[in-house]
Amino acid sequence: MLIGLISDTHIPEIAKEIPQQVKEVFKGVDLILHAGDIFVAAALDELATIAPVLSARGDDDYTVQDKRVDEVQNLTLDGLNVYVIHSSQYFARDLIEHPERHNLEKPPDVVVFGHTHRDVVQTVGNSLLVNPGSATFPYYQLRPGTVGLLSINGGKAAARIVSLQQDAAAKGKI
What we know:
alpha/beta; Purple Acid Phosphatase, chain A, domain 2; 3 helices; 14% helix; disordered C terminus
């Protein structure tokens, strides 16, 4: 299973729509997970023309009322527990390092988070921590940003960041 990861799109404040490069990178994905700060449901509608979409609610998504958006997306994909949140890396790590604080029996296998506009792929314990960065506003700068691709196969997860300005059309393998 191949999953497109995106966050902090800030549509239409920062960009009028999802950049075409994102659509090229996500072509052929099975699912798209948005880690919040969507701003308008129309951004999810655009992504849904590529694949089904689910999103965590960002701190700026208070007006987005959509069944695809929840505070946390807690999914089981190919036997792995995948959490999608819009929060800091510290909170994401805490989910993994101290699941009991969050009423979890065990750490999530994958935590996808947003909010920081900075891409991250990191292994923490036995879990994968991924922030796709921002497709439209990386490091709070107006320029093409990044998205992520998450591969889940045979109960194993791997992720990579795709820079939209450098290799949008070259997905390659994770």
